[in-house]
Q: What sequence folds into this?
């Protein structure tokens, strides 16, 4: 069996360091997710209204965030704002900011789509039964929207967790950065460590994302 | 004559320049079954939708037991509870079971006791032959079953008048019967109803009065025997001829 360098994991507290790195990645993505979901729902509902100014601003925001690669956005916020406005953002703050900006855009688009997909006759039959506006939303529209939204937003959540692998580029020591550090430090003693360590990183991401996507599959089946 | 339940007075409905209903007046008495017929796009569905204010109106007024029905009116949700409506497309709530579809409005809107409504719901489900479907979801039902549930849902609100908007138009032919039988039974119970339909045989059987609408206007308002055997207008004759098949 080839030497995969797994033993490096057991040296010192390397495994704990990797887990702590994963912790950083999860912390940033979970804060961003926690902000993105309510903000996205709010904005998604707002742009479903009739105000053309809100719609126009929203379109620009959505297109801008979507066209921009997340890495460029991270550089823009982390390095750009320091030069332009003299802000001294930490890497983590910049990451949370960028991920929230991105997650909110994606989430609001999902909410908008889910709301549009509720047929008009659902509103009308609610009205015909004497439900007022808030009862219609509370008992009929929102439960159906949430059911449509859940699998899609869980997909977004796992994408956000995975994309945190970019933030090492602005100096945040997350799981991938720790992996690189471990590999560098053991270059002489275990030259093959890259494979084993990156494999471990793969499994760590897997462990973080797999239960979430199972949950989505379960809910999708339950609610169909 | 029984008391006047619904009065429509010089109703006008238009979308921009496009006039859909033009000076329509109609009185429906308690216990009366009025069937509205006419070719597609003549405005008959719009008439029903105006009655429970799903559409705004541009002129005239509609009153239910003397109370004016207005889209922006304060009492519109209270008035709508007195007007049961069943639509062409199956408009059950897909995320709720049959029973919860029926219970939602009586319990949450009318604030009636759940036990009482449930008992009534089962009674009505039994009458339409669907008591075993109470825990099913709409997606597990056929079109005809869904429409019967929609009728039960409307009945559970204890409406004063029922509106049926082409309830069999989207059904497979073999399911039309089971739905129309339910409506016939309601007619026998003396319910006040306005029915829009393309089923002429059914119209003949159920109606106390036939309203023929053409191009947004009521052009005939007569007893079914008279309408089907001696229509007064040329337009109605043409319309009825469409349902006759003869080899030339």
A:
């Amino acid at each position: 069996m080839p030497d995969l360098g797994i033993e490096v994991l057991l040296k010192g507290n390397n495994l704990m360091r990797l887990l702590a790195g994963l912790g950083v990645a999860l912390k940033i993505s979970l804060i961003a997710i926690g902000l993105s979901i309510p903000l996205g729902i709010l904005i998604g509902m707002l742009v479903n209204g009739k105000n053309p100014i809100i719609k126009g601003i929203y379109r620009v925001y959505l297109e801008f965030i979507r066209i921009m690669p997340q890495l460029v956005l991270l550089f823009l916020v982390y390095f750009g704002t320091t030069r332009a406005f003299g802000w001294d953002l930490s890497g983590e703050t910049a990451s949370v900011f960028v991920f929230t900006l991105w997650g909110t855009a994606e989430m609001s688009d999902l909410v908008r789509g889910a709301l549009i997909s509720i047929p008009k006759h659902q509103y009308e039959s609610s009205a015909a039964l004497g439900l007022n506006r808030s009862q219609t939303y509370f008992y009929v529209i929102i439960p159906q929207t949430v059911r449509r939204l859940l699998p899609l937003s869980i997909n977004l959540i796992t994408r956000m967790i995975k994309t945190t692998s970019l933030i090492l580029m602005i100096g945040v020591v997350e799981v991938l950065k720790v992996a690189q550090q471990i590999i560098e430090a053991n270059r002489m003693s275990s030259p093959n460590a890259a494979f084993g360590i990156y494999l471990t990183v793969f499994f760590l991401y897997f462990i973080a994302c797999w239960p979430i996507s199972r949950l989505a599959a379960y809910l999708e089946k339950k609610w169909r | 004559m029984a008391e006047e339940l619904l009065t429509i007075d010089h109703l006008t409905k238009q979308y921009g320049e496009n006039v859909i209903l033009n000076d329509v007046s109609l009185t429906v008495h308690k216990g009366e079954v009025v069937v509205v017929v006419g070719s597609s796009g003549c405005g008959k569905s719009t008439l029903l939708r105006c009655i429970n204010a799903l559409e705004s109106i541009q002129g005239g007024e509609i009153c239910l037991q003397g109370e004016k029905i207005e889209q922006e009116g304060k009492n519109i949700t209270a008035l709508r509870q007195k007007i049961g409506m069943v639509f062409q497309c199956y408009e059950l709530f897909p995320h709720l079971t049959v029973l919860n579809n029926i219970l939602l409005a009586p319990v949450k809107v009318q604030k009636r006791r759940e036990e009482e409504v449930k008992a009534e719901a089962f009674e009505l489900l039994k009458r339409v032959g669907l008591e075993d479907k109470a825990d099913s979801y709409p997606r597990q039902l056929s079109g005809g079953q869904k429409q019967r549930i929609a009728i039960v849902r409307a009945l559970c609100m204890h409406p004063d008048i029922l509106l049926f908007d082409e309830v069999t138009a989207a059904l497979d032919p073999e399911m039309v019967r089971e739905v129309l039988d339910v409506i016939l039974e309601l007619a026998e119970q003396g319910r006040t109803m306005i029915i829009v339909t393309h089923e002429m045989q059914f119209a003949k059987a159920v109606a106390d009065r036939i309203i023929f609408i053409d191009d947004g206007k009521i052009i005939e308002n007569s007893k079914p025997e008279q309408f089907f055997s001696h229509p007064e207008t040329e337009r109605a004759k043409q319309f009825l001829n469409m349902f006759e098949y003869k080899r030339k």
The first helix of chain A runs from residue 7 to 10. Residues 66 and 132 of chain A are 37 Å apart (CA to CA). The interface with chain B takes residues 121-122, 124-125, 127-132, 135, 139-140, 143-144, 147, 223-224 of chain A (CB under 8 Å).
